Automatic annotation (TrEMBL), chain A:
Residues 344-490 form the U3 small nucleolar RNA-associated protein 15 C-terminal domain. It comes from Columbina picui. Transmembrane segments: none annotated. GO terms for biological process: positive regulation of transcription by RNA polymerase I; rRNA processing. The lineage of its organism: Eukaryota, Metazoa, Chordata, Craniata, Vertebrata. InterPro entries: U3_snoRNA-assocProt_15_C, WD40/YVTN_repeat-like_dom_sf, WD40_repeat_CS, WD40_repeat_dom_sf, WD40_rpt. GO terms for cellular component: nucleolus. CDD domains: WD40. Keywords: Nucleus, Repeat, rRNA processing, WD repeat. This is U3 small nucleolar RNA-associated protein 15 homolog. Ribosome biogenesis factor. Involved in nucleolar processing of pre-18S ribosomal RNA. Required for optimal pre-ribosomal RNA transcription by RNA polymerase I. Part of the small subunit (SSU) processome, first precursor of the small eukaryotic ribosomal subunit. During the assembly of the SSU processome in the nucleolus, many ribosome biogenesis factors, an RNA chaperone and ribosomal proteins associate with the nascent pre-rRNA and work in concert to generate RNA folding, modifications, rearrangements and cleavage as well as targeted degradation of pre-ribosomal RNA by the RNA exosome.
Automatic annotation (TrEMBL), chain B:
This is WDR75 protein. One of its GO terms (molecular function) is RNA binding. Its main location: nucleus. PANTHER family: WD REPEAT-CONTAINING PROTEIN 75. Pfam families: Beta-prop_WDR75_1st, Beta-prop_WDR75_2nd. Residues 342-667 form the WD repeat-containing protein 75 second beta-propeller domain. Residues 769-804 are annotated as: Disordered. It comes from Columbina picui. GO terms for cellular component: small-subunit processome. GO terms for biological process: positive regulation of rRNA processing; positive regulation of transcription by RNA polymerase I; rRNA processing. Keywords: Nucleus, Repeat, Ribosome biogenesis, rRNA processing, Transcription, WD repeat. The gene is Wdr75. Gene3D superfamilies: YVTN repeat-like/Quinoprotein amine dehydrogenase (2.130.10.10).
Amino acid sequence: MAAYKPVVVQAFPKLGEKITQDTLYWRGYKTPVQIKEFGAVNKIHFSPVLPYNYAVTASSRIHIYGRYSQEPIKTFSRFKDAAYCATYRDDGNLLVAGSEEGSIRLFDVSGRAPLRQFDGPTKAVHVVGFLSDKYRIFSGGDDYSSSLWDIPNGTEIISYSEHTDYVRCGCASKVNADVFITGSYDHTVKLFDARTKSSVMTIEHGHPVESVLLFQSGGLLVSAGGRYVKVWDILKGGQLLVSLKNHHKTVTCLCLNSSGQRLLSGSLDRHVKIYSTTSYKVVHSFNYATSILSLALSPEDETIVVGMTNGVLNVKHRKPEERKEESQKKRQPAYRTYVKGRTYMPKQEDFCVSKPIKRVLRKYDKLLKSFQSSKALDAVLEPPIRLHTPEVTVAVMQELHRRGTLRSALAGRDEKQINLLLTFVARRVIEPRFTPVLITVADMIADIYQPVVGQSAIVDRQFLKLQEAIGKEIDYQEELLEVLGMMDTLFATFTEKSAAYPEENKSNGLTETVETNRNN
Amino acid sequence: MVAPAALRVVRCGGGGRLCGARPVFSADAKYLLCASGDFVKMYSLGTGETLRLMGGHADLVTGVQLNPRNHMQLYSSSLDGSIKLWDFMDGIPIKTFTVGCKLLALYALASCEDSVFVITPKSGERDTFQLVSVKLTKAAGQDIEAKDLSVVLDGVDVSPKCTAFGREGEYVASVKDVNLQVYFFKRKLLNRFSVNAMKTKGGIHYFTCVVCHPTEDCIATGHADGKIRLWYVNFHHKREYTFSTLHWHHDFVLDLAFSMEGTSLLSGGVESVLVLWQNLSDRQKDFLPRLGSAIEYISVSPDGSLCCTLHADNRITIINSNLRLSRSIQGLIKSTDVKTGLVVDPRTKALVLNGEPGHLQFYCLQSDQQLFSLDIVQRQYIHQAGLKQVDLVKVAFSAQGKWLATVEEREEVTDPELQLKLWFYDEETQSFKLNTIINTPHDDHITDMCFRDMDEMEDDSLILVTTGRDCVFKVWVIVEDTDPEAQQSVSWSCDFVGSYHNYQATNCCFSEDGSLLAVSFEGTVTVWDSLTWDLKCTFCHPPGKIRNICFGRLTCSKYLIGATDHGFLCCWNLLSCALEWSAHLNILVLQPDPLSEHIAAVSWLSKESSLFVFKPNEPRPIYIQRNLCKEKIQLAAFVPRDEPETTDSEKYLWLRRSQLFFLTDTQELMTLSTKSLEERLTPSSKQLAVEESLPVTPFSLLLGKHRRQQSQEDTDLGKLVIHNKQEQDSPAVKELLHTPAHVLPSASFLCPIFIKSLLISKENKSAEEVADEVEMESEKAEDDSDEERDVTEMEQEDTSPSKLLGEITCKLSKYQEKELRKIRKMDYSWISAF
């Protein structure tokens, strides 16, 4: 005697994005806080020391924001024209910024007036930064030069005029205090050593370079320009490691996360993509409302701050680690109830009566086992099953149809139940995995309850909804068929043999649908 | 036997259908006897093994009954018009009674001396049958004519279930259509009844079966509308019958059986549920559901401890008295339609075909046993007539048996529900595990399916091709899942969809090296390159559609064979792309031998099947067997032999390495064999024992066992006593018992000696041990007291002094010898005083 076989619920492969560790991690941010700045945000930089304030450069001001403040806690506004690239020193005490008028200003974070002002460049300075020895500043400007400045003296140490276009980005090595790189609109990234008179390495990016970044180890360089993000191995003499083309507009900013395992890139196409630095595959991406100009990640990845072209600063804070509420532990039977009698070894002459293994069946299975079709259908139309696992409902309907009892199970229901059934069918009939079964169900319902149409406003409304849903679906399928036909003609024009295109989702039982429609 | 004996067509699968007659339990409920085709089969109920296959009838066996006067003997009747008396313990026929007309059922009664009842067709009239009593004369000799017939009842139903004998053979009840007739032997009274006269709420209510209560005047009848009626016979008023109705079945009641005491009734039907009606009432019933298929016969063992149900699919289920499944005896399960074809599992060499609904049976040809049954559909099968349910339609194995592909479908008005499943053989569990389910692989029925058969490349380039009536063929390949978190690393997906002029694809076949795929589209065979999926060439042989295609093998691999439904067998050369030869034959089955280049083709012409075996490179067949069998042959399969058969004849060389099996449309599995039937039936040398004396009731059985046990214990004890006596028959005890009391010494003195004498000594072995002990002791300790040693030595002397002493003396030192001498000198005369 075979045991009762429960209803098989079809498992369908999950479509869409797979949930990985990364998606879970990067989804763990709260809804963003939007702060309006005066102009396009061209630079955001986090203070490397606690409390991780961040400097936002927009228009002619530099705002310092606290971790959770929505108002700036400090403002540097002594610029006549736009300020650029406010950057913290490693100890978080000093801040340097370039400006449109060409001067570079050094601020004490706690003070107000600039400590130093380096005047020299005649044109706008778009990039400034501290070298890792803390006493020198590098800068790059629209006069095509890259310069090095001494903080104590306030004088220029050296100036390299090797770029042939605007210098718009730069980065200092954390490993060597003498090394810094600048990227320019002349499509090159140049590596300078303060001890030499000229650049030590030139890398051809191929597009105007918008952003450069050095890995913490100093061995890898990332450059962004055009739609490309390229990773170079400096130690191998500037060999291209990988070229990433995941954005469809210019990539404007780059950023590493605190562990150095993930690389973030922001682009004018309103996306921030997160790459794994081992496989260089996109592991996650964020969407924003407008084009992104600047991007920063706080230490420990606590906050993602994104600056946009329309002057909006988008701040996302990480959700606090959810302390899982220790749910009231179910009182489990004591250990001894489990071991009771288990250790007993039956003797040879003992007659063993094995305890039958009790199989737990779902409620609908129990009802189906005893051939109670209507009740089984009722059981799967209960809200938890109907709403969360519609595939179970549909599987039971299919099983009833196989047994030939679907019609009798559907018949004899009151207004409320018909309403429920029709709502379910109208909502799910367009899902391809349920369509074949639900079409039959809809057909039967229409057949059975045809005589009572017009007696109840609620049911009539549901019938109309069903009709509407099916009509929409037919239109959609027709459109799809048109596209398919177009693609066929395209494929047919290819002279070489093309690979078989994957099966398209053909309109399932289109005729059937039409028929049902007519019934309504 | 003469050397090149003609090949004979042999039924295999252990005889044939079991459904000929109700099975019979032997008197001690250890064996089960049932009719199986032309044979009577005997199963052991303990092991489920086939013990005997008794052959001798020339046609189907229709009835099996124990001889009521000798429970070691068995009557069997057959369509060939003979009744045979068997000694089933030894499997020898004792007597054959020739009746001369077809016998359709057999009944034996204890009350009727030397006569049995049979159902025979009424002479002169078609489709009317009569119940006849046959006098079995006690003449000497093996073959006896039994011509002494007397008609008991006229117009009975042909089915053996429709006639039953009542309590102690007083009356016989028979049903036909809507009529029940009861005939009393003593009063020669015939009562007729029909349910027509009674009110019935529509529906068909004619009779399907009848049984009589073993002790009371009660007849139970089953009806086609699922009702069971219990008729109470009243002897005093001749036309008054009262009846009660039991209703649970929703379809035909196929068989009924009373329990031995008549307290309960068993019924079974199409639902495959065995219903136990307690106390013959509607109130209390027990069920044994999901028995697998429709219950054809129910029989109860004479001691009431077991009952068995015989199912429509050739299976016997043994059921305990408390309605628990005890055992299932199954050979080749006969499903209604073998849609899967005959497939050979490369791993077990078992024949694989449809089994129970939704299952795949692996049938071992050598042992006539079902190896296992694989549940493919995994859905509850509802036993209800007229319900369209999911059925298994196609099966294919990969070359090594590592992968199994199955197709199941359910007929629907609009579009069939199709599923393609791929199973992976799991070495650990030694069974197939489901790997991939593909829903609706084709939009219409799948017509054929094959794996690319490449032994050496199995892993990386395994390809499955399915052809469908939706005018395409699809190629499925294994894809590896890159996601490390996925549960399984491989799954199947569609790789290529091919079509040809929108014709329906009907067959597919890979060449031996796997480089070419041939797909037939209605009347055209297309050949595709299996690497690039380019169409290479096409063949056709108009008019008519292609029915079968196959590639030649080994030396003939350049040929492609096709059979059309317009009666042509064609052979195309793949190198020249031309027709090599063709023959005018209506080929139904085309089956290449996987181990040689031979191809077997079965043709159907004017109501007979013929077999042609040929090599593709020559149009002349190697072997022709005309008139293979009367039935249409549906399927055929070559099964590799375990060891090549040695045949000296050139003609049968093609049978050397593999054996050809074929299945007719009546679901008979046949084979070709050079050996005769007698050689094939390996007689079991087992000595079977049936208990001579039978207990009357279960209670007496229990009691008898108890008593027997006790008596055995007694005898055991007796033996022990005797044994002890021999031991204790020492003079000491004798003396003690025979000397007058007043002469005996004090009790305290006698007691230890007496007790010691009761101890069973371990004879020689213990003596040796003791001797060793002595040795050791003597070596280490000189200061031991003499008395102590004396005691041990005394024991030695008691048992076997001479041998012992001899042994010891050869080893002992001088000192010890001295000691021994001292002991010998001691006076033991007091012992002899006892």
